[in-house]
Amino acid sequence: MYTSSILLILAIAATSFPPIRTLNGPFDRTNSFFGFLEQTSSDMEGAFTSSYGRAVKIKDTINSYLEEQQNKISTEVNGYFEKMKGRGRQLADTLSYVPTEDAASELENPDAELAVPARIVRHGYRCETHTVASNGYILSLHRIPHSKTTKEISYKTILLQHGLFASSADWIMNGPGKALAYVLADAGYDVWMSNVRGSKYSKEHANWRTNSKAYWNFSWHDVAQHDIPAILDYITDLKGRDTKITYIGHSMGTTILFAMLALRPEYNQVLSAGYALAPVVFMSGIRSPIKSLAPLASNVAHMEMLYGSHEFLPKDSLLGKLTSSCHADRIDGKVCKTAIFQMCGENEGQLNETVLPVFLAGVGAGTSWKTIVHFAQLILARDRFQQFDYGVWNNMRIYGDATPPEYDLAKVKLPIKLFWSQNDLLSSEEDVLRLERMLPSTTETYRIPDPKFNHLDYLWATDAPTLLNNEILSSLDKTFERID
What we know:
eight-stranded mixed sheet
């Protein structure tokens, strides 16, 4: 840039200088020569000054033009962005911020899609999630500590334990006013809902992968021996060691209760009472078609395990995919309803059609093949409530006997109330009465007054308040009066 400027100045100067005068002689015209130099110097200075001035003027003109154009461009750009900002704000307000009645945004069936805590809060109750570790399994507890109308947490504590293939969702699926968890909270109880290992809300382990054999090597026996005691300890540590807890279980939840009291008899003193809804202990009188499948259970389990599947009906297995035909999103009401009635007992009058998709959304919450095989063994064992049968050789190694030991029900000292129904294909009258004879003389029984009441009506019956809940509330009043 500097060199170009010098050349430009010299070129301008060259065109501005006058022609050189001719010298007549070296000495006699000396004055003329010096005069010539002075004139030439003056002409060069004038030319240079004139050229510099023109250069500065050009520079100023260019700078002025550039500044003017820059301001113009800046003004136009700022104006454009202001205009776009206004349009964007208007568009955003229209699409995002202004309330709309967009039906596509709404959940079609919130109780079938939301997790248990979200569903509880959605209905206006407070929900807490607590975490308990048991043998490395990370167990989640869902708690409704009080009713919607008070913040006071009662000393009267209830633990609800779900059945097979289920989760804590069982206790809220029928909605406020009917579902037992809400009914108990409204009545002033501190309600805790546990989730067994391997189920939807208790899927993790501190050390093992959830698709490993080690993770799924458990049955309800292990839940009874380790998990429920750990949960009871957690609650009493939180609320005080003198806290009395009433245990209410459904189906497998009752199996766990009686196995725990036999294996860990000290928990007869921790609990205040045990309520067994559709008790499953003895299974010789089972009338469900699944009874015919019991002899095949061990063989099927063995074949599944050869292919690396230790979870019963995982979602990605062949059988798991077949069960998706009854998924809530693609429900064929008649087919699914018929299948459920065939297994559990038919009772069209107590089935709320809106609850069926909610129930199906929670089915297959996670269990092990060992759990299924253990139940199959109970069916085949008829009058024996026994521990897992590993076969003669392994039984000798583990138990010291060829036959697995029975759970000693004589160790059950807890006040028990058995709830049963005539149309329950999984918990028969003869098996319930046999269980009653094995329990303390203080044991009570209650037959549901509806002769068609089935195994799942405990969870979803339309008339649950009059058929079941009122009896439970009345019995609980007596239980806590005795404690007080």
